[in-house]
Each structure stands twice: as structure tokens, then as C-alpha cells.
Amino acid sequence: MLFIAVICGTCMVISGFPTGAPDLACKEMVPFHPKTTVTGDNPFMLKISSDQYQPGDTITGELYSAQNLTFRGFLIEVGTASTASEKEEGVGEFINIDSSIQRHACGKAGVTHISKEDKQRVSFTWKAPDTTVGDLSVRATVVQKYFPSQYWTGSFSTRIKAVRS
After folding, report:
1. The whole model's pTM is what?
2. CA 76-80-83 angle, 5° bins
3. What is the residue range of 101's domain?
4. 15: domain CATH number?
5. DSSP assigned state of 40
6. Number of independent structural domains in the chain
7. Largest CB tally within 10 Å, which of 27, 30, 140, 164?
8. Which uninterrupted H or E stretch holds 27?
9. Element housing 64 (H / E)
10. Model confidence at 18, in pLDDT bands (50, 70, 90)?
């Protein structure tokens, strides 16, 4: 019985999370992969259509690399965190979800990949909550490959300022 458990556990470790980030990744924004082997500046960026929001506004965005690097997995959330060491509390919701992404299990405020196929960019639309909750950022964790483990945390958009009426 122990042998079967070890084999099943090994299969999960080898395959990673090919159909999206696990629930456990919500607050920390860290994939549960082996320690990353990447160093240097994060090559992945988030471009957004607006740097301010009011309740109910929509903002479109894109996750990409200026160097045209590909990636296999991602987790994107919108929240109040402004540094990679902060835990995230997602706010608002992602809307107009297309067939290349899915809402994340942590709620409507996150999206993740649906396959481990290589991607060069991911587009998204986010809708602000019904009340302002302070300044926000779009935040992403990007997985280039599972083995050897290569992932980047702390991709942030420009800060999105809450407009007070």
C-alpha cells in the first residue's frame, strides 16, 4: 500500500499542475514546484489599460515577455499587495474568460492556465469590485518549465489608483 502511495505522489511531483495552479497558491502566489533555478531580473511583464479604477470599471491586460520567451503556467490575481513577499487577497473578478484561461479556485479574482502548452502572451479582462478597496496591482507568477524548475514570482503591473468620487 505504501508503494502505491509513493508511486502516486511521484506522478504528481513529475507532472506539476498542468491544468492550473493549486488552491494553495492563492495567498502566497508561489507554485508548489521544486525550488526555482532562475536568477536575475524577471522577464515577464503585465501591461494594463488603465492605472486607475472606480467601482465596476473594467481593465484589460496582458501577461507577456518583451524577449518573446514562452511560459507554460501562470497565476494572475488583482489585489492590494505591492511586493512579492506580501500575501494576496484577490479583489474584483475576471470576466470574459476565453478558452485559454480559467478562473482560479481561490475565487473570481484570479485566473490560471488550463494546459501546460507553451504560451507567449495571455490577455485578460478584470472588473473592479462594487466599492473601492484602495490602490491595487495586477500580480502574476509565471512558470517557464517544471523540471528543472523555472518560475518567476512578483510580476506586477503599474499601481492601479482608486478614484474617490
Report:
1. 0.80
2. 75
3. 2-162
4. 2.60.40.4060
5. S
6. 1
7. 140
8. helix 25-28
9. strand 58-65
10. low
**pLDDT reading at 40 higher than 60:** yes
Instruction: Return d(Cα 2, Cα 156) in angstroms, integer.
Output: 43
136 in Cβ contact with 27 (< 8 Å): no
The answer to whether the CB of 77 falls within 8 A of the CB of 90 is yes
3's grid cell: 508503494
**Whole-number Å distance between alpha carbons of 129 and 4:** 46
Digit-coded pLDDT (tens) for 102-148? 777 666 788 887 888 899 999 999 999 999 999 999 999 898 887 78
* Residue 149 grid coordinates: 524548475
**Which of 139, 131, 138 lies closest to 165 in space, CA to CA?**
131
Other C-beta atoms lying within 10 Å of the C-beta of residue 32: 13
